[in-house]
Amino acid sequence: MATYDYDLFTIGAGSGGVRAARLAGALGKRSAIAEDWTVGGTCVHRGCIPKKFYVYASHFGEEIEDARAFGWDVEVRGFDWPRLVAAKKKELARLEGLYVQNLAGAGVRILRGRAVLEDAHTINVAGERVTAENILIATGGRPYMHEIPGHELMITSDQIFDLPEFPKRVAIAGAGYIALEFAGILNGLGAEVTVVYRRTGVLRGFDDDVRTAVQEELEAKGITFVFETVFERIDKKPDGLHVRLRNGDTLVADQVLMAAGRDPSTRGLGCDAAGVALNARGAVVVDEYSRTTKPNICAIGDVTERVNLTPVAIHEAMCLIDTLFHDTRTKPDHADVATAVFTQPPVGVVGLTEGEARERFGNVDIYRARFRPLKHTISGRPERVLVKLVVDHASDRVVGAHMVGLDAPEIIQALAVAVKARVTKAQFDATMAVHPTTAEELVLMYQKTTN
């Protein structure tokens, strides 16, 4: 019987990888994890957490304006970008320390350096060769870069949090959640923002009403959208970066952000040598138990491109540990996963879009409301809320819930429980409203909009 150095060796110390390595260690398994960057991964250092900090910061401009309408005498001296960056760095350093501490507490060894698979049981980490009975690939994703002439002048979401100076003019490629979140952040902090997208409309894949509402709200805040074209080349000139578009126009910006998606981070990982199959986009191919084409090598999180969300990666990690070490074969549940987009206003969704529901069920009932939240009746801000429920006509089950507006991400978390529990529209209607709130509209939409 072969003897290995570790029972589980994890490549990538992001949220999913850390959870798997720590749980294995806590079970008394010989567990190690390799990371060539920072413990905590994209979510903690270049994604969810710093993004939310910057979203908070960008809200204060409007909040201060609104405060005056509510009777507050407020004086603003300006915005200090370096102070925000420094505060973010301090908090992320604290969080990384907690991740490292928790791994150490579970007896997990951390290897610093790039890990490369040499075969199905051997990993080389910066020159140190180790073996493992089970290997977990949890390397996540990396920002896509469109390599046009001058692409080296662009930044990605990896760099934007730590710019030495705040850019006053920004051109953004892409209209997905990453592009729109940064568009809102930069606009809220005072930048002039232009979003360029090769198709028409924002947030492809979301419900059409959500897409329309978000675009209208962002345009009302002063964000410019240029559709059906792409960046063609970028040149640095004395007055800024000149971005030539395929439609013949030129944008002048202080920073150009490529935010047109992310790719699975498998380049140079050694998957071929280990016999691990990748799909056409470079994502690791896995079965329903997160096993790759080599049964002892598994993969979770964004590198598999199933549902690219931090809580999903953590859930997949927990299921995998059950399967490997508890002798309980457990499949991750990817149905009805709630998600939020921290645009301004934010989005919260769970379940099926109207289009998906019509394709699956045929006859569906739609309940939709668009209204001005109570706060803005005094602030005077034109921002509106969208609330939408998608209901399977035959069963009366609520199969999709979609919100755009104040507190939508907080509301959708609780609403996800209802959708997951297969609650019916009649049960929504039988629930008393909490007044006055935005969320009360969810139980007050008695009249169908369409069916």
Short description:
The chain is an alpha/beta fold and 451 residues long. It has helices at 15-26, 41-45, 48-69, 81-105, 177-188, 208-220, 271-274, 310-325, 354-361, 375-379, 408-420, 425-429; strands at 6-11, 31-35, 109-112, 115-117, 122-125, 128-137, 141-143, 169-173, 192-197, 224-227, 231-237, 240-245, 250-253, 255-258, 262-264, 297-299, 339-341, 347-351, 364-371, 385-392, 398-404. The strands form 5 sheets. Strands 1, 2, 3, 4, 5, 6 and 16 form a 7-stranded mixed sheet that branches.
Describe this structure as you would to a colleague.
With 451 residues, the chain is an alpha/beta fold. It has three domains: 6-142 and 263-325, FAD/NAD(P)-binding domain (3-Layer(bba) Sandwich); 151-260, FAD/NAD(P)-binding domain (3-Layer(bba) Sandwich); 339-443, Enolase-like, domain 1 (2-Layer Sandwich), CATH 3.30.390.30. It contains twelve helices and 21 strands. The protein has helices spanning 15-26, 41-45, 48-69, 81-105, 177-188, 208-220, 271-274, 310-325, 354-361, 375-379, 408-420, 425-429, and strands at residues 6-11, 31-35, 109-112, 115-117, 122-125, 128-137, 141-143, 169-173, 192-197, 224-227, 231-237, 240-245, 250-253, 255-258, 262-264, 297-299, 339-341, 347-351, 364-371, 385-392, 398-404. Strands 1, 2, 3, 4, 5, 6 and 16 form a seven-stranded mixed β-sheet that branches. Helix 1 packs parallel to helix 4 (81-105), helix 1 (15-26) packs parallel to helix 8 and helix 3 packs across helix 5. The longest helix is centred in the N-terminal third of the chain and has 25 residues, at 81-105.
